[in-house]
Amino acid sequence: MLKIYSPEGLQGQQPLQLAPAPAALAGLRLAVLDNRKPNARLLLEQVAHGLAQRAGVCVAAVTAKANAAVACNPELLGQLREQADVILTGSAD
Asked: Considering the entire predicted model, what is its pTM?
């Protein structure tokens, strides 16, 4: 028997909305969340320090999640929310 799967995937819940972007970065606390991909921490720290110089943010925390394949631990995310107004994360290879 041959099964054919739709490339459209399953219909799910509506995607979550992103948090609103701040009007200005000056004076805000910035945290870096490293996803542990190769060179991600280096890239994110350079961006964070560039924002500190150009936009007046304070780099409040630099931390990493377990690995790139899993979501951030809710406890770690909660800590970052308390320490920072903006969390910078991303990917690098």
From this structure: 0.76
